[in-house]
Amino acid sequence: MTMELRHLRAVLAIAEEGNVTRAATRLHLGHPALSRTLRQLEDHLGARLVDRSTRHLELTAEGHVFRDKALAALAAVETALDPRGLRSWPLRLGHTWAALGDHTIPLLRRWDQTRPGFRWNCSASTPARRASRRARSMRPCCAARSPRAGLRREPLLSEERVVVMPADSPLAALPRITLTDLAARPIALNTVSGTTTTDLWPPTARPVATIEVTNTDEWFIAIAAGRGPRAAP
Question: Which DSSP state fits 27?
Answer without folding.
Answer: T
